[in-house]
């Protein structure tokens, strides 16, 4: 999940996916260890020529040979950790059917301001899977896989936008939006959306996706804990580890006008299929605990919802409306 390509192409309409629910470092100029001269009266030797002068650091920093083979990591796009030269044409005899070449624009703004991220075409997706070693994937299934892939990423972005809407104004305003639980936030979000529609030429700042990284082999601490609980209490916790994990790096717009980079963690789970046979997926999206602020945000949202439901908040609201 989460494969975007960073190359810009001609602008396309926004994807109709409604959701149902680092710079090169140089070696130091000198090392901390130096050879002492035998006597202070010995005149210093003449400086060597620039071609023969030894490096000030004992570690050699010679350039790699001209015929050296680039590493696999160096071939990856730093924005999405995917091969940057995936072609958009049929490349192998393993492909049994022709796949669409059209790419679909997402609703996710890019951090560099160049429009929205674009999803790979089914042909690019198939080529990327072959390059990763998934040669047993039937080509006729790739188009459906791309549709699910795009749908899940749109859902993940909607969840991130909900987190940002709560906390981009600070923890205090975030608590005001979390104090009435998830139900109260949904109602207030609907009201705020109507107010924004009535305002003309005024838009609230929205987050942007800077880059992302797929880490399917690295379980998050929460997923590890749930896996342990399923071993400890198998009757209460299902043994259903996430089939994928992503780290999305998001640019938050602060009230002061400045921006801040945040990391979000996304666990992708599969659920029991629908009676009609359709697959079911659900996402666990939350800020990574990279500091105390992110930890507070997660505690406020979880604690606000638990307190609101445990204290009968919705019942109090209903009684208050009946008294009016």
TrEMBL record:
GO terms for cellular component: mitochondrial inner membrane. Keywords: Heme, Iron, Lyase, Membrane, Metal-binding, Mitochondrion, Mitochondrion inner membrane. It is an enzyme of class 4 (lyase). It is found in: Mitochondrion inner membrane. Residues 1-71 are annotated as: Disordered. The keyword Transcription regulation does not apply. The keyword Lyase applies. It catalyses: holo-[cytochrome c] = apo-[cytochrome c] + heme b. Signal peptide: none annotated. InterPro entries: Holocyt_c/c1_synthase (IPR000511). Coiled coil: none annotated. Pfam families: Cyto_heme_lyase (PF01265). Lyase that catalyzes the covalent linking of the heme group to the cytochrome C apoprotein to produce the mature functional cytochrome. Belongs to the cytochrome c-type heme lyase family. This is Holocytochrome c-type synthase.
